[in-house]
Amino acid sequence: MNAFKIHILGCGSALPTLRHNASSQVVEMGNKFFMIDCGEGTQTQLRYTHIHFAKLQAIFISHLHGDHCFGLLGLLSTFGMLGRTAPMHVYAPQEFETIFREQLAFFCATLGFEIVFHGLDTTQSKMIYEDRGLTVTTIPLQHRVPTCGFLFREKPKLPHINRAMIDFYHVPVSQINNIKAGQDWVSPAGDVIPHEQLTTPADPTRAYAYCSDTRYIPTLHTLLQGVDVLYHESTYTEDCAAHAKKYWHSTAKEAAMVARDARVGRLLLGHYSSRYEDERVLLNEAKTVFEQSMLSDEGLVVTL
């Protein structure tokens, strides 16, 4: 089974602290690496996590608040200094394109590699990336500016070959891929051996959802049903619910309500307000609603 890991580079909110970096994560699937959000300090965090800069294939920006995108231009500039030649795909709200290209023209005119910008409509759930093993779909969120989350989902896998049955029926190696694709095997004597008898079930697909920043959306769980891991912002505790409402953020309890209703495997809390010296108050609140809650932290690696 291919690796499917979430590397937490930053899980703080807008105000810098000595405890947490601004928002950024790396999703690792097999030999592919994708960045979600790129706040200040992301480059340094990449160094700490030993993720090679050249491995990143695409960057997904959820919205245009500085704690989610102020590190992007510096990272792209560093790619140029490191001699990158492969294109870098940047997915961000379509409102970003004009100023982004102006910044590139002014600061990064001689990068040496192509930047392919993909403007996102944050109001709809739409597949924006696809390769042989993975899709990425937007998750419409509700914040003070156009915002979307991202759902990374493995494509269905082929079943495994039952080696003992293959040997028993003397199935030629040349037919293995056909059988995995669903074809039955017809023996030289004309006997039809169902492919289900020659295979074992495929590994279950895995999915990761990233939802930051957003106010509580009662219907959000319908887009997240059964994901293995959900990252949902938990900026405040319930005693600061008025602040959450004012600034279009969520409390830890509200994040847990989404996780519970979506029947996810685990909930990752993050985007902590700087007011909290100990984020365990957020965790304790979330656990009253959804026991499988855990705190994000810089350097944490979550394996699906």
Automatic annotation (TrEMBL):
Entry keyword annotation includes Metal-binding: yes
GO molecular function terms attached to this record: 3'-tRNA processing endoribonuclease activity; zinc ion binding
Uppermost EC category: hydrolase
Residues at which Zn(2+) 1 binds: 63, 65, 143, 213
InterPro entries given in the database record: RibonucZ/Hydroxyglut_hydro, RNase_Z/BN
Enzyme Commission designation: 3.1.26.11
Gene3D superfamilies reported for this sequence: Ribonuclease Z/Hydroxyacylglutathione hydrolase-like
Cofactor binding comment, as recorded: Binds 2 Zn(2+) ions.
Reaction(s) this enzyme catalyzes, per UniProt: Endonucleolytic cleavage of RNA, removing extra 3' nucleotides from tRNA precursor, generating 3' termini of tRNAs. A 3'-hydroxy group is left at the tRNA terminus and a 5'-phosphoryl group is left at the trailer molecule
A Pfam family assignment: Anti-Pycsar_Apyc1
Ligand binding (Zn(2+) 2): 67-68, 213, 271
Keywords: Endonuclease, Hydrolase, Metal-binding, Nuclease, tRNA processing, Zinc
Catalytic residues as annotated in Swiss-Prot or TrEMBL: 67
Record HAMAP family: RNase_Z_BN
PANTHER family reported for this sequence: ZINC PHOSPHODIESTERASE ELAC PROTEIN 1
Family the entry assigns: Belongs to the RNase Z family.
Subunit: Homodimer.
Name of the featured protein: Ribonuclease Z
Upper classification of the organism: Bacteria, Pseudomonadati, Bacteroidota, Bacteroidia, Bacteroidales
Name of the coding gene: rnz
